[in-house]
Write a sequence for this structure.
C-alpha cells in the first residue's frame, strides 16, 4: 500500500561515479517532485514534473537530471558525484496542487 | 525559493503540555501545509490550509492560515511521547508558476514522559 516509494534507501558511492535513484507513486497523481534535504534538515525543491514535462528547475547543477518514463515514475540521475551531493533526497507527488505526499527518502553518501 | 521563518527551532516539553509553533513569510502564500518528519522517514502531511483565516483541526493538532496570508501556526494539545519529531511548515507562494513548496527550517520537538 506504499503511496510513494523510493529505491535505494541508502546509497554509498565514490566521488566521480554516476548513480540513479528511482521513485514510483501509485496514487494516480499527475505531478512528481524531487527535494534535497541537507545536513541541517532544510528541504529544498530540485525538480517537478507534470505530464512528463519539467515545470520547475531550481538552479540545480546540470549533473542532476530527472527522467520520467511515465506518469507514475520520476527517477533522478546524478553524474560525476561530488562530496557536496551527500544529502537525503525525497521524491513527492501531488494531483495538480500543493498537497504533496513524500517518499521515505534516499540517503546518499559520497566518499 | 524563499525560505520561511519558522520558530521555535526546538522545544523540550513534558508530556501533557501544549505546544505552539509558527511560520512567517515576507510574501503572500496561497497555501500553508504542516508536515511531521520522524527520524529516518519522509515528511508526513498533518494539516493543509487553503484559505486565509482558515482554522483546521486534526485530532490534537490545530493549524491556522493567517489572515494576511503571510503566516501560519500549529498547536499541539496534550502532547504525548510519540509527538517527538521535526515539524515543518511549507507553503506555496502566490507567484510560483509550478507547485513546488517552500519549507521552514523545522521545529524539533522532544517530549519527556
Amino acid at each position: 500500500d506504499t503511496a510513494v516509494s523510493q529505491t535505494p534507501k541508502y546509497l554509498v558511492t565514490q566521488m566521480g561515479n554516476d548513480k540513479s535513484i528511482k521513485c514510483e507513486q501509485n496514487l494516480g497523481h499527475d505531478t512528481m517532485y524531487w527535494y534535497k534535504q541537507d545536513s541541517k534538515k532544510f528541504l529544498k525543491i530540485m525538480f517537478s514534473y507534470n505530464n512528463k514535462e519539467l515545470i520547475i528547475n531550481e538552479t540545480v547543477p546540470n549533473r542532476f537530471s530527472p527522467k520520467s518514463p511515465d506518469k507514475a515514475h520520476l527517477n533522478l540521475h546524478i553524474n560525476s558525484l561530488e562530496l557536496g551531493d551527500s544529502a537525503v533526497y525525497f521524491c513527492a507527488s501531488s494531483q495538480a496542487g500543493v498537497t504533496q505526499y513524500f517518499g521515505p527518502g534516499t540517503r546518499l553518501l559520497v566518499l | 525559493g524563499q525560505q520561511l521563518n519558522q520558530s521555535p527551532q526546538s522545544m523540550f516539553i513534558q508530556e501533557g503540555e501544549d505546544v505552539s509553533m509558527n511560520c512567517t513569510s515576507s510574501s503572500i502564500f496561497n497555501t500553508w501545509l504542516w508536515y511531521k518528519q520522524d527520524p529516518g522517514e519522509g515528511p508526513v502531511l498533518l494539516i493543509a490550509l487553503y484559505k486565509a483565516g482558515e482554522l483546521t483541526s486534526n485530532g490534537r493538532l490545530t493549524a491556522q492560515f493567517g489572515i494576511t496570508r503571510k503566516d501560519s501556526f500549529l498547536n499541539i494539545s496534550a502532547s504525548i511521547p510519540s509527538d517527538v519529531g521535526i515539524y515543518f511548515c511549507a507553503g506555496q507562494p502566490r507567484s510560483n508558476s509550478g507547485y513546488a513548496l517552500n519549507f521552514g527550517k523545522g521545529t524539533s520537538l522532544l517530549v519527556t514522559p
In short: The first strand of chain B starts at residue 5 and ends at 7.
